[in-house]
Every structure is written in C-alpha cells, then in structure tokens.
Amino acid sequence: MNYYLIGIKGTGMASLACMLKDLGNEVSGSDLEKHFFTEEPLIQRHIPVYPFNPSNIHDGMHVIIGNAFLEDFPEVIAARNNPTCVCARYHEFVGGFVKNYETIAAAGSHGKTTTTGMLASMFQEAGETGWLIGDGEGHVTRDTSYFALEADEFRRHFLAYHPAVAIITNVDLDHVDYFHDDADYRLAYEQFSANVTRGILIYGEDSEARKLNLSTNVPHYWYGLQDNDDLQAVNVDERSDGMSFDVLFLKKPVGHFELPFVGHHLLLNALGCIGAGILEGMDAAAMEAGLSRFKGVKRRFAVTEIGENVYIDDYAHHPTEVSVTIDTARKRFPGRKLVVIFKPHRASRVKYFANDFVKALEKADKVYLCEFTSIDDKQDGTDINIQYLADRLPGSTVIPEDEEGAKILIRERPAVFLFMSSKDIYGLESIVEDE
After folding, report:
1. What is the Cα–Cα distance from 304 to 383, expressed in whole angstroms?
2. Bridge partners, 246 (sequence order)
3. Based on CB atoms within 10 Å of each CB, which residue in 81, 144, 206, 246 is the most buried?
4. Can you tell me the distance from the alpha carbon of 111 to that of 300, in angstroms, rounded to the nearest whole number?
5. Helix (H) or strand (E) holding 326
6. DSSP H stretches of helix in 151-263
7. How many CB atoms lie within 10 A of CB 64?
8. What is the Cα–Cα distance from 275 to 200, expressed in whole angstroms?
C-alpha cells in the first residue's frame, strides 16, 4: 500500500507512519519544516516528509489525515477531491487497524500516554505486543497478538475503537472548545464504555468517573487505594527511589509489587495496568517483570542532570497535569529551587481553566511563560495571548523561545528546570542545556 499522512510529525501520526513502514508499506507525508521530537524515527526509516502542498497528493494514495487539520486545509481538499484516493482520519484508520489484535486501550484526561507505555512493556511478558502511543512511538510485527492503544477522547475520536479491555484513568473535563460541560464529557466516556468487549478498569477516586453511567454489557472494576475499590493497592510504600505495594482483586490477594517508579500517579497507572493483566490472565510475577522494564515515554517527566542543574521535559498541558508534575518534581528533588517554564496549548483551555492554572503554577518557586504558537491554538476563535495568564499569575514572566529567553533562564541556575507543554518547548530546553 502507498500511505500518505497529512501532519506526519504529529505524535500519533509519526507512530502510525513507522508502524506502516515496518509492515512493508510505502509511506510518506507532510508537515511543517521546523523540527519536532517525533522526527528521528521517521528519519531512521527513510520516510520522506514534504512541506505542505496539495500537489503532494497523487492518484491511488491511501491518505491519513491528522486531526489538527480541518476539511478546508488545502491538502485535505486535494485528497478528498481525488476519486482514486482512499481517505480516513487518523482515529478512523487506527480503529480499523487494531481490530486485528487483542487490544488493551488506555483512556482518560491525563495519564493515558504513560499508561499505554506501561501496558506495552507489561504485555510483552504475555506475548508478542504492538503499541501505538502518543509520544511518537509505534511498534507492530506480523506476529503481534496483543496491542496497547492510547485512546484519545478528543472530539470523541476514541469511539472509533473497540478494545477488549480498557483503562479509564480519570474523567477530568478537557477540550472545552468541543465538549459542552462535565455531563457531555462524561457521556463520551459512557459511549466509549459500550465499545469495550471484556472489561473496564476505572480509577475509583475520581469523582467525575464515579458519576459515569457505564454500559452493563461489560463488567467494570474500580481501582485505587480505598476499601470500596475492586482492585486495591494496600501496604503502599512510596519513596524517592521507587515504590512497593500489595494488590487485592475482589478482596483476594494477587501479589506483591516492587516497582522503580516515583510519583503517586505512576502507582495508579501501574495499578490500572495490573487490572488489565488480571483480566487477560497474567500472573503477578509476569506483570511485575514487565512493568519493571518500563523506562518511561518521551516527553513525560524526562530528566536530564547536568552538574548542579536538573532539566525535566514534560507534556503537561492541563492544570491537573501541571499540578501533579510539579508535585512529582518536588518529591523527586526535595529542597531544590524549582523553576517552571510553561507553554500552553489551545487558547480556549487557558481561558476556561485560568484560575486552575494559576493555582497549579503557584507551587513553583519561579514561573516563566511562553506564547501560543501551534496551528490549532486559536482554531475555535478564542483570541487571547499568553499575557492573559501572566496577568493572573503575580511574579510570572513571559519569555521568548530563543537565545534571549535562554539567557533569562540561565540566571536562575542552579535549579530544577521544569519545561511543560504539549508542544515544542523542548527546543528552548535544548538551548538552555547547551549554554
């Protein structure tokens, strides 16, 4: 097959492109000419990436459209108008692709990328496992039987997926440019639950999740640390170098787990994965071994230490994620000065959650903010700039993502620098590290 991906450097799109290439297909695509962290696997596979141009669309292509690109985008128009091209949006294509495997999906407002990465690592102990993760990583072979899938609720796209098992990490309102309110957001997860065929694991201490009216066609299990959870972690010991806990499922012991993770959110993500493993018949030793091999995913609390300074790159772009990531940095590096550099994604998210962003960012010792730059930041018509947030956060400073901005940050040394954004803030981090 000849596949062409519009927006090929997107995290899910880059992953998918690599998978299709590894299966022996002809793959190419288009995107912006600036650097993205997802490019390296594309380069390694010699996948051509062209600047956007409608003339890139040729007869007979299978065109996969990135979800950031609307129907009026020139390449999308060219593909839709070519009767010889087969067109599908990313989620539509993936939904059909994973029907060939025993799919375990991770959904939720926060934590789904990391949880999918954990699933991919853990299920390799059960059999040949593929994965499609929102960090630019994808893997599949002709012998794949299990498949770990990140299921994104954005515009209800996860309704294209029909997994055997699903984990719902939380139901914390996001994408306010599309979802009307909390009830509409919950409805999307209720609709998703009806697609699951074997079992659903849901984080039990999420108040919005507890309001879900879940499908009765498939069993669901709550996980967490409380006695009313079906899957419960007990005897929990969280340390700065790892964690340990025992697991009960329906009040019966499953096993003891020693894991090299730091951060309460990682404990919960691991617990959800253990639940999926139980439903798929894995034993405790295999689950522990698989989880222990998990080394993290790209742009999720990626730590680099250089001399007296620590540089952390994280994808956090919602106030809940920002708060948890700052808490984790405090736990991992206690007593150190914490400098946060935050670049938001989507003006509507910043406007709606402005007070929550302020509360989260105030946990840092110093906050620097960067301007919106993404193609879809103001797609819904919300026209604010970063000063909207800066005006509400006393002591914060807006800086450019260039040498000038890097020099301002360097004056904060020695420190723990926490760069947070779902977009390309890692470019600024690289400049600071190299200075």
Report:
1. 35
2. 234, 256
3. 206
4. 9
5. helix 319-332
6. 182-193
7. 26
8. 9
Angle made by CA atoms 86, 91, 94, in degrees to the nearest 5: 75
* Max Cα-Cα span within the chain: 62
Instruction: State pTM to two decimals.
Output: 0.76
Q: What is the pLDDT of residues 378-428, one digit of tens each?
A: 767 777 888 999 999 999 999 888 898 889 898 999 999 999 887 777 788
- The alpha carbon dihedral of 53, 54, 58, 63 has a sign of positive
Other beta carbons within 10 Å of 239:
9
User: Which residues, in sequence order, are CB contacts of 296 under 8 Å at separation 6+?
Assistant: 114, 117, 302
The answer to whether the CB of 90 falls within 8 A of the CB of 13 is: yes
Give the separation between CA 128 and CA 81, rounded to whole angstroms. Answer: 40
Nearest to 342 by CA among 361, 323, 363: 361
How far from chain centre, in Å, is Cα 114? Answer: 7
Q: How far apart are CA 388 and CA 79, in angstroms?
A: 38
SS3 26: strand
How far the first Cα of the chain sits from its last, in Å, is: 46
Two tokens, residue 85: 């091209």
Alpha carbons 84 and 200: distance in angstroms, whole number: 40
